[in-house]
Amino acid sequence: MDVYKMQAMIAGWADEVYPKRTPTALLAKMLEEIGELILNPGDPMEAADLAILVTDYFHLIHFDMEACMV
User: Can you give the pTM of this predicted structure?
Assistant: First the structure.
């Protein structure tokens, strides 16, 4: 799956499940997830949680994630 499709899929899910989320709230949740990842560095689910939040953050701030990373 390419980055655009992944970002759209995550954004669609998050828009449906958490429609009132804010970029600031996502940043706070990222800090929480970073703590969990530090405690469980080998857990792919914790890494995925953080990746999902970062991807959704790009969506909320209207940045093209792939363009920013390239």
Answer: 0.87
